[in-house]
């Protein structure tokens, strides 16, 4: 991918957005945990879940800095901000500000959007791995399209496994198996779904992951020449 100059207006705006996400995550996270501590119906599991959410998003925000300083791995600023924004709207807005409970469509939109983010992450990973052997792998556009499809589906499956683990250990509702709420944090009064309906959210998420990944794989296939040209330009500039 062609990278903008370090001090370009685009990069400066991305850095400001990245800093804003960092500050908002700390502020909203601290406020939300304190708020839950003073709620009479808040369980220990709910507090643990909430704290873990903010720890994960902070880890996502600081990971690029750690990789650059510790392993000299440079993650493009655009991908860094895209991942940070996705983590913010998923964990901070979705769970922390209860957008999952307020808007039933929030989770579905994010799963579709995540496929686009993961496509760029997947392409960045494979160009880093095969940077010196691009004629062997990157010259096959069908392979790249198939790789994007499988990468997106795999990440979606891992995400569902994590949600299942969250629900099992923290008593949450991230897979939305409750009939009375779509929020991640539930109460003792909430009633779970039964039978086939309990699988609806998980299967809907996986279907949306498939749709999004398929659309991005088609995009990679159709825009292959431009993507490879951008990769070669970035590689040449780096050298």
> In total, how many domains does the architecture comprise?
1
Based on Cα principal axes, name the global outline. Answer: globular
Number of helices: 9
What is the distance, rounded to the nearest whole angstrom, between the alpha carbons of the first and last residues? 14 Å
What characterizes the major β-sheet? Answer: none
Rg (C-alpha, Å):
20 Å
The low-pLDDT segments are none
Order of helices and strands: HHHHHHHHH
Mean pLDDT: 80
Tally of DSSP β-strands: 0
**Share of residues in strands:** under 5%
Q: Which percent range fits the helix content? A: over 70%
Structural category: mainly alpha
Structure description:
This protein has about 240 residues and is mainly α. The protein has one domain (about 10-239). It is built from 9 helices and no strands. The chain has helices at about 10-35, 45-70, 75-95, 100, 105-130, 135, 140-170, 200-220, 225-239. Helix 5 (about 105-130) crosses helix 7 (about 140-170) and helix 7 packs antiparallel against helix 8 (about 200-220). The two termini are about 15 Å apart. The mean pLDDT is about 80.
């Amino acid at each position: 991918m062609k990278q903008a100059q370090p001090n370009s207006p685009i990069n400066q705006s991305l850095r400001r957005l990245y800093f804003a996400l960092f500050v908002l995550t700390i502020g909203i996270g601290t406020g939300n945990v304190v708020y839950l501590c003073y709620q009479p119906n808040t369980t220990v599991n709910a507090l643990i879940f909430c704290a873990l959410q903010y720890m994960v998003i902070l880890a996502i925000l600081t990971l690029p800095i750690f990789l650059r300083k510790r392993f000299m791995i440079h993650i493009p600023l655009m991908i860094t901000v895209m991942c940070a924004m996705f983590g913010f709207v998923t964990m901070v807005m979705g769970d922390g500000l209860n957008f999952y409970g307020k808007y039933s469509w929030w989770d579905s939109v994010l799963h579709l959007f995540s496929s686009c983010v993961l496509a760029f992450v997947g392409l960045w990973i494979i160009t880093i791995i095969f940077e010196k052997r691009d004629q062997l792998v990157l010259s096959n556009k069908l392979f790249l399209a198939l790789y994007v499809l499988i990468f997106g589906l795999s990440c979606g499956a891992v995400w569902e496994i994590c949600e299942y683990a969250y629900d099992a250990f923290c008593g949450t509702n991230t897979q939305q198996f409750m009939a009375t709420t779509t929020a991640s944090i539930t109460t003792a009064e909430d009633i779970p779904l039964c039978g086939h309906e309990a699988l609806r959210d998980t299967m809907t998420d996986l279907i949306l992951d498939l749709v999004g990944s398929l659309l991005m794989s088609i995009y990679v296939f159709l825009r292959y020449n431009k993507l490879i040209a951008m990769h070669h330009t970035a590689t040449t500039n780096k050298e």
